[in-house]
C-alpha cells in the first residue's frame, strides 16, 4: 500500500523543447571552441612577436598564413589549428542554419525578432551607484535630494 502525498506532479519539458535546447547548447559549444582556438592562435603568434590585429572571422586564416609565410616551422604548427577552427566553423554554420529554419517556422520567434533593439521596457527602476551620497543627511531634506 502506498502512503499518500509522497509524489508531487512535476513539469516535464516536451521532446521538442529538449531538442531545441540541445541544438542551442551544441551550437554555442562549437562557437566557443572556435573562438578559443582563434585566441590560442593569436597567443602562439604573439610569442614570436607577430600580432594579428583586428581581422574578421572570414579573413582570419589569410592573415595567419600571411604572418607565418616566412616561418615554415611555425606555419606547420599553426596549420592544424586553422584546420580545426575551419571545421568547427563549418559545423557551427550547419547548426545555425538549422536554428534559423526553426525560427522561420515559429510564429512567436518571428514576432520576437521583429522587435527593434532600441525598445527597452526595462528602463525603470533607475539604479543609483553605491558611492552616491545625498547632499543633506537630514531626514526632512533627504527625500528631495534623492530626486
Oligomer: single chain
Average pLDDT for all residues: 82
Low-confidence stretches: none
Strand content range: under 5%
Largest sheet: none
Q: Outline, from the CA principal axes?
A: elongated
Element string (H = helix, E = strand):
HHHHH
Q: Compute the number of strand runs.
A: 0
Compute the separation of the termini in Å.
65 Å
Task: Put the structure in a nutshell.
With 147 residues, the protein is mainly alpha-helical.
What does this structure look like?
This protein is an all-alpha fold. The chain has one domain (15-120). 60% of the residues lie in helices and 0% in strands. The protein contains 5 helices and no strands. The chain has helices spanning 15-46, 60-67, 72-105, 107-113, 139-145. Helix 1 runs antiparallel to helix 3. The longest helix is centred in the middle third of the chain and has 34 residues, at 72-105. It starts with 14 loop residues before the first helix and ends with a helix. The model has no long low-confidence stretch (mean pLDDT 82).
